[in-house]
Amino acid sequence: MSEKKFEDELFGDLDLGPQADQRPPAPAALTQVPGFETLSVSNLEALEERQKMKNTSSSIKSALKEPPPKGPSRKMIVLVALAVFFLVGGGVGVMYSMGIGFFAETKLPPIAQPNPGGRDRVKKKRQLLFVGTKPKGAEVWINGVKYKSQTPVNLVLLPNRKYKFVLKFEGYLPLQKNLDVKAPQSPISWKLELKADPKKPVKRPTRDKNGEGYVKVSCDPMGALIKLGKSPEVKCPATIQIEGGTHPIKVEKEGYSTYSAGVTVYPAQVITLPVKLRKLTEREMKKLAQMKAKEAKDDDDDDDDDDDDKPKPRRRYRPRGKGTIIIACSEKATVKWRVGSRWKTLGRTPLTAQLPSGNQRIRLVGRRGALRDELIRVRYKKTVSKKLSFRKGKIKFQVKPWADVWINGKKIGQTPMPPYKVREGFYRVTLRNGKKKETKRVQVKGNQTAYVFHYFSG
Questions:
Q1: Residues 6+ apart with CB under 8 A from 6
Q2: Which is higher by pLDDT, 9 or 194?
Q3: For the CA atoms of the chain, what is the radius of gyration?
Q4: What is the pLDDT averaged over residues 414-418?
Q5: 425 pLDDT above the threshold of 60
Q6: N or C: which terminus of the chain carries fewer CB neighbours within 10 A?
């Protein structure tokens, strides 16, 4: 079959005139596609749609790639805000420190600050003032405000200020002094003598050892009985006047532990002594009640024996011999045994030794002055075991005006300072105030506070 006949059979029913062969003009981009002349109308439309989609996607990508409009970033805004804040705050601080403008009326006047330890520890541009009076212990009022310490005191004053000092002491006339501090200079020292008030005569304190002093005792709990030296018993709190020297003091209350120590009283000085009693447990109270009942019974028996002519019962025979003791300690310690007026070394813990029957005094000696005495009852041909440890106590320093403190050759600080914790025993305490030096031997008991009193005269 020829090619012409085949076309007639396929397109015989169609109008293929000159108008039917006319096609719409194609875009210039499609004319470059290979085989464009042989494409049908539907294929051309599909190519046109595809070309439009490509153009749309390319326009979107180009729009996304364009940089955003320029403007201030968030980081820049934060930096500017911080710079403004610091500039304004710094200006306000300078105005407050110099007392300019509104702050000139609201700024409070400076108050004298204490100089701890009495040394030259003042900052630059400050004035140091020492105030001492005769007698000591006068109240110091600065610009109408009572200072916390009594004379002698060291004060640190600010320059370009005016100060009004008033010194008051019971039985003496008030003494007023004014001081205008313009610029810092060398330390100023005031040694003032107060005049007695003729309307309120008082006994002047003497400087000899027999001069009278005061002991101010505060208790926790209140209401305990205080026995100081030969003075009568009083209830706590109380201020007791007693002659100078070292006196024993005893504070006790029913249901609480008993406090006993020694107090050194200085002439014309007030010694403050806070006492805290520990509440006894039920077991301790029961044991104490049994001891009191036994003592009362012994007293009654002695009275009955005096009245009756009955023969006294024979004393129970106690065999004389040796017993064994086993002593253990929480740390290595030397064990000593009291023989007459001397101490005999038995060895180191843990220790097993044989001693004569009866009450024997044993001493444990540890490191750095730790020491504990214990009374042990040794039974004939029996073994007694004891496990001991060094209890802890405190040393409280009341030194005027100040002092560097050494304990057994080791420096622990400078007064004023909180109570220092040590183990029970004997300690060598050295106090140094400049070139002045004082050494004391202090005994610390377990669960108790030992006091060290001293005054360095000017």
A1: none
A2: 194
A3: 50
A4: 89
A5: yes
A6: N
What residues contact 221, with CB distance under 8 A and at least 6 apart? 253, 256, 277
Structure tokens at 117: 């330890």
The greatest distance separating any two alpha carbons of the chain, rounded to the nearest whole angstrom, comes to 176
Q: Give the separation between CA 219 and CA 265, rounded to whole angstroms.
A: 19
| End-to-end Cα separation, the chain, in angstroms | 147
Enter the tokens of residue 406: 């050494």
pLDDT, average across residues 241-256: 86
- Closest residue by Cα to residue 247 from 268, 225, 266: 266
What is 2-27 written as a DSSP string? -HHHHHHHHHTTS--STTTT--PPPP
Whole-angstrom Cα distance, residue 55 to residue 57? Answer: 6
Nearest CA to 135 out of 240, 205, 188 is that of 205
Q: In whole angstroms, what is the distance from residue 419 CA to residue 210 CA?
A: 30
Whole-number Å distance between alpha carbons of 263 and 213: 11
Strands 392-400 and 449-455: parallel
Q: What's the CA gap between 204 and 212, in Å, rounded?
A: 10
Per the CB < 8 A criterion, the answer to whether 243 and 210 are in contact is yes
Q: How far apart are CA 366 and CA 428, in angstroms?
A: 15
Distances in whole angstroms, Cα of residue 279 to Cα of each of 21, 272, 455: 125, 23, 34
Residues of the chain by 3-state class (helix, strand, coil), percent to 5:
20, 40, 35
Residue 115 has pLDDT above 80, yes or no: no
Residue 237's nearest CA partner among 223, 256, 258, 254 is 223
The answer to whether the CB of 347 falls within 8 A of the CB of 362 is no
| pTM across the whole model | 0.33
Q: Which of 155, 147, 163 is nearest to 109 (CA)?
A: 163
CB 193 within 8 A of CB 251: no
Helix (H) or strand (E) holding 387: strand 383-388
Task: Give ∠ CA 135-138-139 in degrees, rounded to 5.
Answer: 175
Q: What is the pLDDT of residue 172?
A: 85
Structure-block tokens of residue 374: 């214990």
| Two structure tokens written together for 456 | 């360095």
